[in-house]
Amino acid sequence: MAVPSMSLEQEINPWEAQSARFEFAARKLNLDPGLWKVLSTPAREIIVHFPVHMDNGSIEMFTGFRVQHSVARGPGKGGIRYAPDVSLDEVRALASWMTWKCAVVNIPFGGAKGGIICDPKKMSQGELERMTRRYTSEIIEFIGPEKDVPAPDMNTNEQTMAWIMDTYSMHMRQTVTSVVTGKPLNIGGSRGRREATGRGIKVICDESMRYLNMNVEGCRVIVQGFGNVGSNAARLMHEAGYKIIGIAEFDGGLYNPNGIDIHQLLEYRSRNNTILGFSGAEAMPSDEVIESECEILIPAAMENVITSRNADRIKARVVVEGANGPTTAVADEILAEKRIFVMPDILSNAGGVTASYFEWVQDRQGYFWKEAIINEQLEQILRDSFEDVTRYAEAHNVNNRIAAYMLAIDRVAFTIKQRGIYA
Ligand code: NAD
């Protein structure tokens, strides 16, 4: 994939990152120019400015966004993030990523994303609650179980979803649990949701091992980020016989060539609030950990961690992307030259949105499934999607990321063609 030379700032811009992949895949597909225009433009972008009473009695104005990139295949789906540097460009890129992700795993959702510019670490629970409720009421005509279904993202959580669900329900004069996913279990949340993304990553690792004729037993794995995604993936893979030899966190890393006992590490982290100082491994700077030799590297912390600056030092045989956008388009080229097998984010971390789909279905049914059923169906969807993507890659002689984009674009474009353009 030929990517023009660019500055690091351009390289890590999320809209550039998604556009580079979209355009390459659309060209390969010979996508109709009209559909190209439809799919490269978000369907709706909402910007709201709204006041919130702060604890000290003052009034602050906040800016929030909700972008619905496509609702062709079903209601919009995507998280809401709270951060000081949220921008329309970022939310727009993340919304389109959601369209592709839902299409890759073939679930009946479009793509959306939202955010509020704020510094949640400096806000009280009361301020966060008032901000969340007012933001919800500002976008209320545009969300709903059949329109657009938000979920947690950076700095939002089950509590945030409970507030959104309650605000929406108050306006509708009835409880509507299916307006958001990622809720607490007792108000319409789903069993298995919390560890779903990590579980999906394990499935993609298992399938990659099978596809490449490699053994799970003793397979050396390095995980960057020991949060929800990274720690669940590491635990499930440790239990399945993978050897987790390295963990990289924001404040330092751990390395043990004989394998780290993930259960002990989880226990240590819950007691000490950090992985540093754990006696079952040696300390190692995080950069060195992710550049160490291994069979599988799982970047599961944040975006833009494999760039033109370090891609040539990655020594993994397989990269399974847990985070959204951990590899830049320029780094893709370098990893491809090194013949590293990359399983892209829009497939590898789709376990989360797949479990969200199950949550939405259960809320609408008013019937809640056993965890074993959820895990089994989740695993089946990810195995099938792995098969779809790798088959597409072979048939079109492209890498897995481009194959995933092509498959997704093809599915969304086909739906738009079938539905026709309303006039
Ligand atoms: P999280 O906040 O629970 O965990 C992130 C972890 O990464 C934290 O432990 C943090 O300390 C660590 N970290 C931060 N900066 C780091 C750095 N520079 N180096 C190493 N570690 C660092 O978040 P999460 O829910 O696990 O999400 C992680 C990534 O996965 C994000 O990109 C997110 O968008 C993506 N993702 C999450 C889900 C989900 O279901 N949670 C689904 C799909 C994608």
Give an overview of the whole structure.
Among the domains are: 134 residues, Rossmann fold; 153 residues, NAD(P)-binding Rossmann-like Domain (Rossmann fold, 3-Layer(aba) Sandwich). The chain has 15 helices and twelve strands. The strands form two sheets. Strands 9-8-7-6-10-11-12 form a seven-stranded mixed beta sheet, with helices on both faces. Strands 1-2-4-3-5 form a five-stranded mixed beta sheet. The longest helix has 26 residues. The radius of gyration is 21 Å and the shape is globular. Bound molecules: nicotinamide-adenine-dinucleotide. Nicotinamide-adenine-dinucleotide binds next to helix 8 and strand 7.
Task: Please identify the top-level CATH class of the domain at 196-348.
Answer: Alpha Beta
Ions, cofactors and other ligands present here are: nicotinamide-adenine-dinucleotide
**Secondary-structure class:** alpha/beta
> Cα distance, first to last residue?
37 Å
Brief sketch in words of this structure:
With 423 residues, the protein is an alpha/beta fold.
Keywords:
seven-stranded mixed sheet, 45% helix, binds nicotinamide-adenine-dinucleotide, Rossmann fold, 423 residues, five-stranded mixed sheet, globular, alpha/beta, 15 helices
What's the helix and strand layout?
Elements: H1 8-11, H2 14-29, H3 33-39, E1 44-53, E2 59-70, E3 76-83, H4 88-104, E4 111-117, H5 125-138, E5 148-152, H6 158-172, H7 196-211, E6 220-224, H8 228-239, E7 243-249, E8 252-255, H9 262-272, E9 282-284, H10 286-290, E10 294-299, E11 316-320, H11 329-337, E12 341-343, H12 345-348, H13 351-365, H14 371-396, H15 400-419
Parallel strand pairs: 3-4, 3-5, 6-7, 6-10, 10-11, 11-12
Antiparallel strand pairs: 1-2, 2-4, 7-8, 8-9
The chain binds nicotinamide-adenine-dinucleotide.
